[in-house]
Amino acid sequence: MHSALFEFLTQSPTPFHATQSLASTLTTAGFTELNEREPWQLEPAGQYFVRRNDSSIIALRLGQRPLTEQGLRVIGAHTDSPCLKVKPQPEINSQGYWQLGVEVYGGVLLLPWFDRDLSLAGRVTFIQDGQLQSRLIDFKTPIAVIPSLAIHLNREANKGWEVNAQKELPPVLTQLSGQEEKDFRALLAVQLHHEHGLQNIQVLDYELSFYDTQAPAHIGLQQDFIASARLDNLLSCFVGLDALLSADGQQASVLVCTDHEEIGSSSACGADGPFLKQVLRRILPNEEDFNRCIQRSLLVSADNAHGIHPNYADKHDSNHGPLLNQGPVIKVNSNQRYATNSETAAFFRHLCQQHNVPVQSFVTRSDMGCGSTIGPITASKLGINTIDIGAATFAMHSIRELAGTQDVVHLTKVMTAFYNSVELLS
């Protein structure tokens, strides 16, 4: 299981690549891709998936019973992670070095980005023979770095400093020779030729992100932990897909992995957009049938939780400090930053008990702010009963995060049981 997770993480440096990887696995498993621009001919008990913007995906198993009687078992996650994105006119020539201007995407923990071996990946849109096309690219090898300033030139560095995103984050790609000028779009055209064999193209625009090339790894004397980029939230995407494919297929099941969660989900393909509702309405066009189905359904919003850090234990409520490798975390917030309520929490807790999976709870300190997920957004869009859960994690939003080795097993086990559940909430 871990080797497959590591492969997925490596193949998914951007939401575009994550969605492509999920779609490829679904196709291999016999799911049929649907095109939103075409009519849908759905078969009873059929297996389908649909993509939007190449960065969000919904997979469907229609099950053996009418949807109005069995409802939907929905697992939701997100494909995006905080990162540094390349600006539209990024070229910076400074002191004989070629750099690229970047924009901070989401709530990035910035300091760990310094002195890392960075590569670049994403989607490029171009014209070839008068036709507008897009392709995914991934340089894979380290092509850039953001060097730290030496301690000798900043004696206060270890006392902490505020990173200036405009001035301090542009990565260095190469040295320039004399008055040499670099053209970033020309570089992308070369990469498109290298990866896809494309010639005579004009690169028009792109959505590209830098990422850390260090491979996922087991960490710890007993391989207690998994260290990797983008565990938030590709771990949940992977577990959701594995659970969907491992389930018996008797119950109507949905996996939804959407983009833009880290910046609020407000987009055509984000959880705060119409994507999920539009897909479900095409399955259930009758409004009464749709409403009946939704009221029999349950959404498990799976997004990483904050594990209690041994060096910063006072950042947690003393009664709600989840431990790594101790099972899924039920996330609760009375101000609806998480959508969990007593009934959905009880259902999930009981499900864990039935399948011998340990389970924990997280509530943020009362004197601290609380993050959020796609859970409350999707609940408010659909009116669906929802619970927020996730695997306990260290260093969330860092370039390299840490999760428990056993929690991947725990989470997959209970998620598979959820998809197999005959009865949801009464």
TrEMBL record:
<feature type="binding site">
    <location>
        <position position="152"/>
    </location>
    <ligand>
        <name>Zn(2+)</name>
    </ligand>
</feature>
<dbReference type="Pfam" id="PF02127">
    <property type="entry name" value="Peptidase_M18"/>
</dbReference>
<keyword id="KW-0479">Metal-binding</keyword>
<protein>
    <recommendedName>
        <fullName>Probable M18 family aminopeptidase 2</fullName>
        <ecNumber>3.4.11.-</ecNumber>
    </recommendedName>
</protein>
<dbReference type="InterPro" id="IPR001948">
    <property type="entry name" value="Peptidase_M18"/>
</dbReference>
<feature type="binding site">
    <location>
        <position position="397"/>
    </location>
    <ligand>
        <name>Zn(2+)</name>
    </ligand>
</feature>
<dbReference type="GO" id="GO:0004177">
    <property type="term" value="F:aminopeptidase activity"/>
</dbReference>
<keyword id="KW-0482">Metalloprotease</keyword>
<dbReference type="InterPro" id="IPR023358">
    <property type="entry name" value="Peptidase_M18_dom2"/>
</dbReference>
<comment type="similarity">
    <text>Belongs to the peptidase M18 family.</text>
</comment>
<keyword id="KW-0031">Aminopeptidase</keyword>
<keyword id="KW-0645">Protease</keyword>
<keyword id="KW-0378">Hydrolase</keyword>
<feature type="binding site">
    <location>
        <position position="78"/>
    </location>
    <ligand>
        <name>Zn(2+)</name>
    </ligand>
</feature>
<keyword id="KW-0862">Zinc</keyword>
<dbReference type="InterPro" id="IPR022984">
    <property type="entry name" value="M18_aminopeptidase_2"/>
</dbReference>
